[in-house]
Description:
By secondary structure, the protein is mostly helical. The chain is built from 15 helices and no strands.
Amino acid sequence: MNAIRRGLSNGLVQAVLMVIGLVWLTPLAGLFFSSLRSAQDSALGGWWTAFSSPGQLSFDNYSALLKNAGMTQALWNTVLISVPTTTLVVLVAALAGYAFAWLEFPGRDTVFLIVVALLVVPVQIGLLPVAKLFGQLGLFGSIPGVVLFHVAYGLPFAIFLLRNYFAEIPKEMLEAARMDGGTEWRIFLQLVLPVGRPAIASLAIFQFLWVWNDMLVALLFADSSSQPLTVQLQSQIRQFGSNVDVLAPGAFVSLVVPLVVFFAFQRHFVQGVMAGSVK
Length: 279
């Protein structure tokens, strides 16, 4: 870590990283300026013409977006899918990670190996069987069905990450808590969760970004009333093709939310990933 810090403090390295950052942000800036221009202005020239004609920029597209029932419903559906999924995955994975790390029960190592093995199972393998199962249960085409699918396929990685992090907690700390009369629930809530906050935050970011940006699962398991923003944007492209005044602000909103979440918790994200990695 010290070598990495010294390398990043080099002026040339910082300059290169700044250039990479500017190149990476250019498409985002282009999308933002496009979202502030009318369809007529977009047809006449690229987004960079806004620098020479700033008068063409306005927030009318965002006002129209908020009045578009399909887009606002899709945005709300995205929230209803992403937030419960992230919450459930973090909660279940934290409980399972603590159990695999510090509780003794028959078959613990075998079950954990099965969980690790599930990491290599592609999501495409389960699409058709789960779709058939959801159809029999009446969950196909609903938001709970999409949430359950994401939870099921997010848990193996989540359990693996948190188990590795919780296993690094000093054993003496847990034994001292037990000697003081602490129950397993109290130790988990008042000791393990606060200590594991960086790993939990990084997991929450991972899960939220994956679900928020997902389109494959939503295309199959969500119908027109439960489809998220990614599917709605794709549908707008197929139906109209050139309605940039709707697509640009919708795409920018879809992009900027996970960016805000990531940059707000990036310190916890880096700490959690590095501390939860296999040594």
